[in-house]
Automatic annotation (TrEMBL):
Keywords: Electron transport, Heme, Iron, Membrane, Metal-binding, Transmembrane, Transmembrane helix, Transport
TM annotation in the entry: 18-41
Protein name as annotated: C-type cytochrome
PROSITE patterns listed in its UniProt record: CYTC
Length: 298
């Protein structure tokens, strides 16, 4: 009996033990809660309480995933001229790597020897202005003449030539003075009072508000001038005019997409479309050429 009685006795036998048990009952849950809160708070969060809402973090999230070449650039920033190799990779490789449309391949000494013998000036002039299926400046009108010449030198020297790198001439400092004078004259003209009669002012406003009646652009004419070199024989993956199967997925994308690719340029899996076909045609002329090719290929 004594053993059974001892088993049922309480572990708390003194007042001190009772106080310690009560204190432990309060402190242990509090400590557990504090530790749990610290553990949760130590993990990185993406909502309130983190740095995810700072201007830097928001700007990073809004940054485009990829730059397709259409990002606006600061027009006032000084132009940084590209190397010949960089220009070649961006504008020339599509044809001069594969030999498309009769373009001499990079490294083909036999194909380049006759062209190199014409002289550096002739080679550069042909590259800048275009010749046969070669579009002006490789289809990128934004290239500087120096950049084009650097690409020519790179291509020729990689193919047995010994052309000289072009010298970059500094712009004359005096060129800024006429610009400033002209700007001042324009400002002075803008601040002069209008002395014309009310009837003349009304007529001028009406003339400015009335849109000019533009003649309809001949899409076929633009095609024959700027597009036929590639879209006629199907050079560099360009869909031939009249090839319904090749044009069907492009037409399905819609006119807006086709216009954008033709005006701004596009690089796909099959080939490269230079901006405006390497021509100086206006946006409306390019759109007319796209409409002509699409209509002829339905």
């Amino acid at each position: 009996m004594s053993d059974a009685h001892n088993e049922h006795e309480s572990l708390i036998k003194t007042p001190k033990q009772l106080i310690a048990a009560i204190a432990a009952g309060f402190l242990i849950p509090i400590i557990a809660i504090v530790l749990l809160v610290q553990y949760v708070a130590s993990e990185s969060t993406s909502g309130a309480g983190s740095d995810s809402q700072t201007p830097e973090a928001i700007a990073a999230r809004l940054k485009p995933v990829a730059d397709v070449g259409f990002t606006l650039k600061d027009a006032n920033a000084p132009k940084v001229l590209q190397t010949g190799e960089a220009v070649y990779k961006a504008a020339c490789a599509a044809c001069h790597t594969t030999g498309a449309a009769g373009a001499p391949k990079l490294g083909d000494a036999a194909g380049w020897s006759q062209r190199i013998s014409q002289g550096q000036a002739t080679l550069v002039s042909n590259a800048i202005n275009g010749i046969r299926a070669m579009p002006a400046k490789g289809g990128n009108p934004d290239l500087d003449d120096i950049e084009v010449e650097r690409a020519v030198v790179y291509l020729a020297n990689q193919s047995g030539g010994k052309l000289k790198e072009p010298e970059v001439k500094a712009a004359p400092a005096a060129a800024a003075a006429p610009a400033a004078t002209e700007a001042g004259a324009q400002t002075a003209s803008a601040t002069q009072p209008i002395t014309s009669s009310p009837s003349q002012q009304t007529q001028a406003v009406a003339s400015a508000a009335q849109p000019a009646a533009a003649a309809k652009v001949d899409g076929k004419k633009v095609y024959d001038t700027a597009c036929v070199a590639c879209h006629g024989p199907g050079v560099a993956g360009a869909p031939k005019v009249g090839d319904k199967e090749a044009w069907a997925p492009r037409i399905k994308q819609g006119s807006a997409t086709m216009y954008e690719h033709a005006i701004k340029g596009f690089q796909g899996k099959a080939g490269v479309m230079p901006p405006k076909g390497g021509s100086t045609a206006s946006d409306e002329e390019v759109k007319a050429a796209v409409d002509y090719m699409a209509d002829a290929s339905k």
